[in-house]
């Protein structure tokens, strides 16, 4: 078992989508094109637009985990990895009303939950854990711990004392993180 942690590359986007579907959306939407479009527009695009830190974990050369973070005042560095998402957007817009409404409802409820949680605290944090997921095959192999340590090292090196971690109950696995604010 050879786990390596490295910078996110353009060719990692599809494996990141697969891990995202596995962790957050498996069985939620049956139509594969709709699922790909939803994951692209709800997760991948916003994460790439915000993040100044990104790493993947590979196990024997295959991407099995991902972590993205951001730091206040640093420019997002992963926007250039995005492709043209017109196809995904059109697929979402051309769905039957029920499917389109489900996507809009999910997006709105996620955005509202985030707004409520962060309201009044926006300026208390210097950094953010934007996204973190590990494939089923790599769970229990300390891949997640290695990815988190990379992000924490980045925050320590950039003198980031307080970070924001948003999580929800949508993922298909239990996740508990115990963190002390960096002092």
- The share of residues in extended strands comes to 15-25%
- Number of H/I helices: 5
The secondary-structure class comes to alpha+beta
Summarize the biggest pleated sheet: 5 strands, mixed
Give helix % range.
40-55%
Principal-axis shape: globular
Mean pLDDT: 81
Distance between the termini: 35 Å
Q: Radius of gyration over alpha carbons?
A: 16 Å
H/E element order: EHHEEHHEHE
Q: What does this entry show, briefly?
A:
The chain is α+β, with helices and mostly antiparallel strands and 183 residues long. The protein is 42% helix and 18% strand. Helix 1 packs across helix 2 and helix 2 packs across helix 3.
Your description of this structure?
With 183 residues, this protein is an alpha+beta fold. The protein contains five helices and five strands; from the N terminus they run βααββααβαβ. It has helices at 13-25, 32-50, 86-93, 97-118, 143-157, and strands spanning 3-7, 53-59, 62-71, 127-134, 163-165. Strands 1-2-3-4-5 form a five-stranded mixed sheet, with helices on both faces. Helix 5 (143-157) links the parallel strand 4 and strand 5. The longest helix has 22 residues, at 97-118. The radius of gyration is 16 Å and the shape is globular.
